[in-house]
Write a structure and sequence with these properties.
About 35% of the residues lie in helices and about 15% in strands. It has 14 helices and 16 strands. The two termini are about 30 Å apart. The structure holds pyridoxal-5'-phosphate (PLP). Pyridoxal-5'-phosphate binds next to helix 5.
């Protein structure tokens, strides 16, 4: 039996239903920015990974520095429990994260995925408020269009309409949601002030119940690739301070260079009280995330009735993952990513511009190493993916979005292949300006 048939017999893929027979490609190898694929019919193809494996593979596949770091740590030990034990990769990584993240984030808790780090962030916010004598503050202020992961508390602060709230009635926390921040392309000081005033009213009305404000800074990813002005974060900092709320930044998608700054918070020069980092942390090699918080939050929680942060995963601070994260930070610390991301941004901006002429396209936007074509209607995912591969690009569109978040090591010719592939796929599948639909 062929691999894809065996897969269909036993496996479940992300956001899929059993038996849907959605197209699948087999990955035979992955090197640099390229995936080597075999299709269901046995055809071989090579495609540039415009998704960087769901935004995490920033230095590319089989990166020699990361490969060597993994081999070196494997030769020492790959895992030990973190209760009562510690190790050099975790300590060094925590020190480096404290040094590179916005000021005031001085304490690190390692989690095994982005969603789990969000759970820890929410938990610590509630524990903080309880320890500070405000036990009724158990709810969160989130935003329409947000996404923070697939575990229950994380889903509970995700978009209340397009998220998964209606699928789990009664199980998701009853949180409060403000409108999404105004789009960067159209925002004015007035629209930002009006939005902030809306958030402020919610915070004021429910401050007795609210533990924290939770947001993806500058870019709401899964909820629509929505780019918004950094000034909104400054407003949130003031609102949180005014009403005794903690400010939580979910930098799982935006952190480590993706938006052009090391952290999206840096665009505003704002420090949150709690921050989550994941995805690109290990350069995409292994699952690892971190929750960072201020010493004030950490000390308050530690002095609280529970006497501890109530979390401790089996694979917490996995040494292999920490060693890879240290190697990935070594690569980032050369600073070369900055020039790459700036160049990629310019190339995505010019390369995707022709898409704006297509009748099916509603908007084209970029930020850092993120390029988005938003259609006026839902994307034909299977067709766009198929045509993308024909043009040598691996795309994974969703909703009304055909987008890229490429590895930072993409050179100019590779970003050109990506943008040309995206524009061609949209034109071919969704029709060009003349209304013709090429095969
Ligand atoms: N938060 C944000 C902003 C994300 O984009 C994601 C994943 O896409 C998550 C949290 C969840 O991370 P993970 O998939 O590692 O659990």
């Amino acid at each position: 039996m062929k691999l894809i048939e065996r897969d269909r017999a036993v496996l479940w893929h992300p956001y899929s239903s059993v038996g849907d027979n959605a197209p699948l490609w087999q990955v035979d190898a992955a090197t640099g920015v390229r995936l080597h694929l075999t299709s269901e019919s046995g055809q071989q193809a090579e495609a540039i990974d415009a998704m960087a494996s769901w935004w995490c593979m920033i230095h590319g596949y089989r990166n020699p520095v990361l490969d060597a770091a993994a081999a070196e740590q494997l030769a020492r030990f790959s895992h030990v429990m973190f209760g009562g034990l510690t190790h050099e990769p975790a300590v060094r990584l925590a020190e480096r994260l404290v040094a590179m993240t916005p000021d005031g984030l001085d304490r690190v808790f390692f989690a095994d995925s982005g969603s789990v780090s969000v759970e820890v962030a929410l938990k610590i916010a509630v524990q903080y408020q309880t320890a500070a004598g405000r036990p009724a503050r158990q709810r969160f202020l989130g935003f329409h269009g947000s996404y923070h992961g697939d575990t229950f508390a994380a889903m509970g602060i995700g978009d209340p309409v397009g998220g998964m709230h209606s699928d789990f009635p009664g199980l998701l926390a009853d949180n409060f949601f403000a409108p999404r921040p105004p789009a960067a392309a159209e925002a004015t000081p007035e629209t930002i002030a009006a939005w902030a005033s809306n958030v402020k009213s919610l915070a004021l009305a429910h401050s007795d119940e609210l533990a924290a404000i939770v947001i993806e800074p500058v870019l709401q990813g899964t909820g629509g690739m929505h780019v918004y002005p950094a000034e909104c974060l400054t407003a949130l900092r003031a609102i949180a301070d005014r009403h005794g709320l903690l400010l939580i930044f979910d930098e799982i998608a935006t952190g480590l260079g993706r938006t052009g700054a090391l952290f999206a918070a840096d665009h505003a020069g704002v420090s949150p009280d709690i921050m989550c980092v994941g995805k690109a942390l290990t350069g995409g090699y292994l699952s690892l995330a971190a929750m960072l918080c201020s010493e004030r939050v950490a000390m308050t929680v530690s002095a609280g009735r529970a006497g501890a942060l109530l979390h401790g995963p089996t694979f917490m601070a996995n040494p292999l993952a920490c060693a890879l994260a240290n190697a990935s930070l070594d690569l980032l610390e050369t600073g070369e990513w900055q020039a790459h991301v700036a160049r990629i941004n310019a190339e995505l901006t010019s390369g995707l511009a022709p898409a704006a002429q297509l009748a099916a396209v509603k908007d084209v936007r970029t930020i850092g190493a993120v390029g988005v074509i938003q259609l006026a209607s839902p994307v034909d995912v299977a067709a766009v993916t198929r045509v993308g591969i024909r043009h040598g690009v691996w795309l994974r569109p969703f909703r009304d979005l055909v987008y890229t978040m490429p590895p930072f090591i993409c050179d100019s010719s590779e970003t050109e292949i990506i943008t040309a592939g995206m524009v061609s796929a949209v034109a071919e599948v969704h029709g060009d300006t003349t209304g013709s639909t090429a095969p």
